[in-house]
Each structure stands twice: as structure tokens, then as C-alpha cells.
Design a protein that fits this description.
This protein has 16 helices and twelve strands. The protein has about 475 residues and is α/β, with parallel strands linked by helices. It starts with 10 loop residues before the first strand and ends in an 8-residue tail after the last helix. It has one domain: TIM Barrel (Alpha-Beta Barrel), CATH 3.20.20. The strands form three sheets. It has an eight-stranded parallel beta barrel with strand order 1-2-3-4-5-7-9-10, surrounded by four helices.
Length: about 475
């Protein structure tokens, strides 16, 4: 499929995150945030899971977020390139610690507020609408030190203050918001997803689901504030999506696939439907978990549900109850997956499954009956610059056009999709590995895994391809 149909007002663009793009990690009085403690190398994944050696950067480690691609200083140049491709929207995140360096300062940081004013003004100059995530793998380190991050109920109050500050400040500039990026990542990489640090003897599941409850209440309060402060805005939640296929038609495999999906749907069930589902209550009983809730929490969750469902889709997953089959796990996938014999994999072990995009979109729409927004989808690969200075990333074009075509099929199935912001339109630091070598962009950034390079921006072959795709509103996906 190379010809697709999209609504006239479809929102084409790209997506980046503050912690992977901005750099300038202490500029303008910014405080440390959790990603500033994630080094490259073999320790990174362990730290993301909550085994954190120190709450300050350590000598001898390289922290890629500290400089990243220096979007903080290059944003005008980068946005001009996004405008050249014809972007209608750019998804970004606000760094909480740029606005409140310690997370509980008496007044917001003027320099941080001004940076995002300038950023949004630059986007609007080109008629690019900002799509803004309030928390994208981002907790001020001072709040981890003082409160244990989202373990503490105090975080709900502080997040509400932060949310109201930025919603009020940018209410005339931003009409699309999201609360927590890939909120279900809390279960898989709890430090990355929620700033959780574990000690020996901790009841990890209890801590994770208590933190999840605090985030869900905080999300609902942000929705409430958005609806009150910006009545014409839309605010959504965001899921790291991708269906779990049963490896066989054995009912045990089928049921496990359903349970694996529910691990993630749990968060969106609460944010979209406004209450804890029955299967979650049973899970808490079976696991001996007791979630502390305030008397008003049920009402808050029920009264302030999201307007749309944002989701990332990179790959599907496969699960089995057979111990022999379980030995055949793919590498690289955060969620853990059996290798699917019908599908190819990327260099980093991610399953390539365009049809899974259509399946996932249909499942989400059937489940929630709310508009969807594909806010991440992309292909991480090693790109070579030719002697002529070209980057011929046909593999990326092939991946993206097949996924966009399946997204179009989902729309024709009756699924309402607001837009598509591919990840990331310019090379940025990989969240999972901390590498620059794992590139997603239409624009190459001259920077390597060790932080060396000129930071020069070079459009790749996919740059022109995506420009044509947007100009044709998705009807021309040929190279």
C-alpha cells in the first residue's frame, strides 16, 4: 500500500522530548532532572529500573542529556527545517525543573518560562501548533531526594501547581496538551518513568502501583485545570502501545496476551473511563497490594477524564506460557517479547510490524471510543554519511510509509485519529540506550555516542520524502 487517505485537517509533524533534545542542562537556573543521572553504557538500564547509585552526576560517567543536541540554542534553526517539511504540529515537552528547579520553589523560574515562550512563538511564526507533554520522563531530582518522587502524595500537589503554572502561562499559545508520557513505563523502567529509587527489601510492586495512583490523580487534576483555564484546548493521556500477540492459539497463551495488554491498558482505563477496572482490583487482591487513596480521589478520577488517547507505536510484542518458547526472547525491547517468526527486527531488536499499527489503533478506539493521536512512531537505525555528505535512509522511509499506510487503513476502518508526530524528526539521544548512533531523524545531527561532533544539521533522504508525504496529505508515500 503506497496511497493513503487522511482527513483534511490531519495534524502532520514530529515529536521530541526536552530531556533528549534540549541539553543546556543547567542553563537558565534549571534544576537537575532524573534523566540527567542516566549515563551511557551498561549501567544505564539498571539505573532506569531503579537501582540508582547516586542522586548527583558521578565523575567518569558520560551523561548524554547534559548537552544532547543543544536544541536549547538551536531551536530556531531546527524549527525552520521542520517548517520546510511542512509540519502542522511539533510535539515537545516542558522540563519541570526549568520551571521549578527544585520542584517546590516559591515562584516559577523566569528564565525557564521565557525559553518556552520563545520556543512556542517560534513555532507559531511558521503556523506550527505546539503539542505539549507536561511530564516526559521528567522529575526534578530535588523531589526524588526529599520525597522519594511519586511514592509520595506530596507529588500530586506539586505537579498540580506546576501544571497550572504552565497552562496559565501558555494558554494562548498551546491548544494540545498531554499529561504523562508513556505512563505505563512506570512498571517497566520505574526510575525513568517516575523517578522511583528502590532499596533492598522494598515491596517494588506496592511502590509502583502507589506511585501510579498518585500519577493518575495528578493527571486528572491537570485535565481539570486545563479544562478550566483553556476551555478550547484538548488534553490527552499517553500510552506506550503495541499489542501482545499470543504465540499460539493455546488458551493459556491467549489469556496471557490479554493480561499483558491489560498491564498497560490499566492506566488508560483509569484516565479515559475514570475508575479502576475490575481486573486491577483483583490483581491488587491477589498480589496483597493495598493502594492508599484519599476520599476525593474516586470523584477526581471520574470527573476529569482525558479528551483523547495519545500513543506511541514502534512494534508489537509476542508472549507465551511455554518455558521453551520463552527462551527465544528478542533483545532491546523494553517490554520483553518472544521473537515473532513472521516478522523482521531492527538492528536494536525491535520487531517491525506495520499491520500492528492498524491493530493497535482499532483496539484502542474500540475500547475507549475517543479520538486517538499517534504521537510517536519511528525507526532507530545507524546512518552512514556518504563522501558527498548525503544520508540515504531508504530503510527508514520503508518503515514509515508502511506504518502510515496502515494508519490510513485504520482511519478507513472508522478510527478517529487526530494526527501523526513521528519520533524524532531530528536525531536525538536515544531514551533506552543513551546513544546518538541509534538515529530516528529526517535531519542528521553531527554528534556521536561520546558527545563529539560539530552539531551540524544535515537533511537526510527521508526529509524530502516526508515533506512530499505531508504536502500530499499522505496520498503520496512513494520515494
Amino acid at each position: 500500500m503506497t496511497s493513503s487517505k487522511f482527513p483534511e485537517n490531519f495534524l502532520w509533524g514530529g515529536a521530541i522530548a526536552a530531556n533528549q533534545a534540549e541539553g543546556a542542562y543547567l542553563a537558565g537556573n534549571k534544576g537537575l532532572t532524573l534523566v540527567d543521572l542516566l549515563p551511557t553504557g551498561e549501567k544505564r538500564r539498571s539505573i532506569m529500573k531503579g537501582n540508582v547509585p547516586a542522586l548527583t552526576p558521578l565523575e567518569g560517567e558520560f551523561y548524554p542529556s547534559h548537552e544532547a543536541i543543544d536544541f536549547y540554542h538551536h531551536y530556531k534553526e531546527d524549527i525552520a527545517l521542520f517548517a520546510e517539511m511542512g509540519f502542522k504540529v511539533l510535539r515537545v515537552s516542558i522540563s519541570w525543573a526549568r520551571i521549578y528547579p527544585t520542584g517546590e520553589d516559591a515562584v516559577p523560574n523566569v528564565a525557564g518560562l521565557k525559553f518556552y515562550d520563545d520556543l512556542f512563538d517560534e513555532l507559531l511564526k511558521y503556523n506550527i501548533q505546539p503539542v505539549v507533554t507536561l511530564a516526559h520522563f521528567d522529575v526534578p531530582v530535588a523531589l526524588i531526594q526529599k520525597y522519594g518522587s511519586w511514592r509520595s502524595r506530596k507529588m500530586v500537589e506539586l505537579f498540580e501547581i506546576y501544571s497550572k503554572t504552565v497552562l496559565e502561562r501558555y494558554k494562548d499559545k498551546v491548544k494540545y496538551w498531554m499529561t504523562f508520557n508513556e505512563i505505563n513505563m512506570l512498571l517497566h523502567l520505574p526510575f525513568l518513568g517516575a523517578g522511583l529509587v528502590f532499596q533492598e527489601g522494598d515491596n517494588v510492586k506496592q511502590i509502583q502501583y502507589q506511585a501510579a495512583h498518585h500519577q493518575l490523580v495528578a493527571s486528572a487534576l491537570a485535565v481539570k485545570a486545563c479544562h478550566e483555564l483553556i476551555p478550547d484546548a484538548q488534553i490527552g493521556c499517553m500510552l506506550a502501545a503495541g499489542s501482545f500477540y499470543p504465540y499460539t492459539c493455546n488458551p493459556e497463551d491467549v489469556f496471557q496476551g490479554m493480561e499483558k495488554d491489560r498491564e498497560s491498558y490499566f492506566f488508560i482505563d483509569v484516565q479515559s473511563r475514570g475508575e479502576y477496572p475490575g481486573y486491577a482490583k483483583r490483581f491488587f487482591r491477589d498480589q496483597g497490594l493495598s493502594i492508599e487513596m484519599e476520599p476525593d480521589d474516586a470523584g477526581i478520577l471520574k470527573s476529569h477524564t482525558v479528551d483523547y488517547i495519545g500513543f506511541s507505536y514502534y512494534s508489537s510484542r509476542t508472549t507465551s506460557t511455554d518455558p521453551e518458547v520463552q527462551k527465544n526472547m528478542t533483545s532491546g525491547n523494553v517490554f520483553g517479547s518472544i521473537a515473532n517468526p513472521y516478522l523482521a527486527k531492527s538492528e536494536w531488536g525491535w520487531t517491525i510490524d506495520p499491520k500492528g499499527m492498524r491493530i493497535t489503533a482499532n483496539q484502542l478506539h474500540d475500547r475507549y471510543q475517543k479520538p486517538l493521536f499517534v504521537v510517536e512512531n519511528g525507526f532507530g537505525a545507524h546512518d552512514e554519511v556518504t563522501p558527498e555528505g548525503e544520508i540515504n535512509d531508504d530503510y527508514r522511509i520503508n518503515y514509515l510509509k508502511r506504518h502510515i499506510a496502515e494508519m490510513s487503513e485504520a482511519i478507513q476502518d472508522g478510527v478517529e485519529i487526530l494526527g501523526y508526530t513521528s519520533w524524532g524528526p531530528i536525531d536525538i539521544v536515544s531514551a533506552s540506550s543513551g546513544e546518538m548512533r541509534k538515529r530516528y531523524g529526517y535531519i542528521y545531527v553531527d554528534r556521536d555516542n561520546e558527545g563529539q561532533g560539530t552539531m551540524k544539521r544535515i537533511p537526510k533522504k527521508s526529509f524530502g520524502w516526508y515533506k512530499k508525504a505531508i504536502q500530499s496529505n499522505g496520498s503520496d508515500l512513494e520515494e
